[in-house]
Amino acid sequence: MVGIGSALTNLRDALRRPEAHVEVIDGETVPIGMLLGTLGTLLLDAGSSVTDVRSALEKTRDAAGLGDGLAIGVLPALVIVSETATGAATIVNAEGIELSFRQSARANRLVLGLERGAIALAEIPARVRSIRQGTRPPAPLPWVLGNALTSAGLAVVFRCPWWAVLVALAVGALVGVIGLLLRRFREAIAVVPFLAAFCATAVVGLVAASTGFDHVPLYAVCAPVAVFVPGALITNALLELTAADIVTGSARLMQGLIMLGFMAAGIAAGSAVTGLHVDPTSAALVGEVAGIGTDRAGWEAVPPLWASWVAVVVLATGISLVFGSGWRLTAASVVVMVTAYAVVSWLTPFSGSVVATGLAAALLFVATRVLERIVPVIPATVSFRPAFLLLVPGTVGLVAVATFDAGALATPLATFVSLCVGTKIGGLLPGLFARSAPTH
């Protein structure tokens, strides 16, 4: 009884104690924990990892002169800010609505301004509302066109024959329509990867059977569903695990593996229906595709190597359309993605594709931070993401799961780790560059 009485006394004293950290907004007292939580959930919806969100909130807290008076915890769907003196906690839930690249850029510009002290904490609610007001369902034409261009671009980059490129273009548009229709129903979101993979595999299988093309490369099937492959999710999970965010990293990793499982089941079902046999040896990373070729002619010939450079531009444009980038971010995406392709292609003969991916990630992360310093309206976390999508070997992991090939699984896992290490090393260097606060 003495212990219970002491606990009740402490709780009563804590409740009577006034809030230590507050801001007055429009005549109302708002806990700073609520402000930081609102900012954190915006970053979560923008696709940032919990490690990056916690770091951003801690920098914002320190820039406001709050020191260690507030403790910050971040989970995939909520932010917890607690008073270290009293233990009083403020919990803010994320809305769970994915933001476009343009909105993500505005969110990161807000963080830059807060860290530099150019934006006051009291401005957070109004600025977050302004950013979220731009959330709209994807426009049908850009979404479908973006999926088609992304699919065709990947098919050319990874050296598929001409017939597979044309099929990937058409199937990418079909998958875009499927995703556009089903994402309106929250209950159907979980089955979109399965249905997309099934439809893509079935169409490719029917085309291959009717035309007699017996060599079906991996990316003829995977390119149309690349937007749904959780490569970035799994890589973020590994980044969180390396940062000791065990609970979140494990949860995200399981989510990514489940999505891969759904897609692998879709590919298996589509192959069973059409009798399609995908060549598992055609799984290659970015740096390895230069040597892929064929002695076949006509529609079974492989596009010339120079076409891959054009395809990278098409790929960056398609991703920008899918994720809602403005013209500045689209231009930055093209430059960063072409640079990523060039760096990996040049380094692979010397270091191997796995190591080349990590080195490219480190170099590009630093380069995007320099770009952020010169042009604050293009944050590094946003401009780096298209290159991140190119480097992530998500589709290679997909074929490893689909074929149950333990040997094939080792390559994407090693590349995931290399990418994480490279990103971590690149993240150690931003302190060398003074980040400019946005001027508008």
Task: Round the Cα radius of gyration to an integer and report it.
Answer: 24 Å
Give the SSE order as H and E letters.
Answer: HEEHHEEEHHHHHHHHHHHHHH
Q: Compute the number of strand runs.
A: 5
| Uncertain spans | 14-18, 432-440
Instruction: Note the overall shape.
Output: elongated
What do you see in this structure?
With 440 residues, this protein is mainly alpha-helical. Helices cover 64% and strands 6% of the residues. It contains 17 helices and five strands. The protein has a three-stranded antiparallel beta sheet, with helices on one face. Strands 1-2 form a two-stranded antiparallel ribbon. α3 runs parallel beside α4. The longest helix is centred in the middle third of the chain and has 29 residues. The chain starts with a helix and ends in a 13-residue tail after the last helix.
Q: What is the secondary structure topology, with strand pairs?
A:
Layout: H1 2-16, E1 22-25, E2 28-31, H2 32-45, H3 50-63, E3 70-75, E4 78-83, E5 89-93, H4 101-116, H5 124-132, H6 140-157, H7 162-182, H8 192-211, H9 218-222, H10 231-242, H11 246-274, H12 306-322, H13 327-351, H14 353-374, H15 380-391, H16 394-403, H17 406-427
Antiparallel strand pairs: 1-2, 3-4, 4-5
Helix pairs in contact: 2-3, 2-5, 3-4, 4-5, 6-7, 6-12, 7-8, 8-11, 10-11, 10-17, 11-16, 12-13, 13-14, 13-15, 14-15, 14-17, 16-17
In short:
This protein is mostly helical.
What distinguishing features does this structure have?
440 residues; two-stranded antiparallel ribbon; mainly alpha; transmembrane helix; disordered C terminus; transmembrane; ThrE-like_N; cell membrane; ThrE_Dicarb/AminoAcid_Exp; elongated
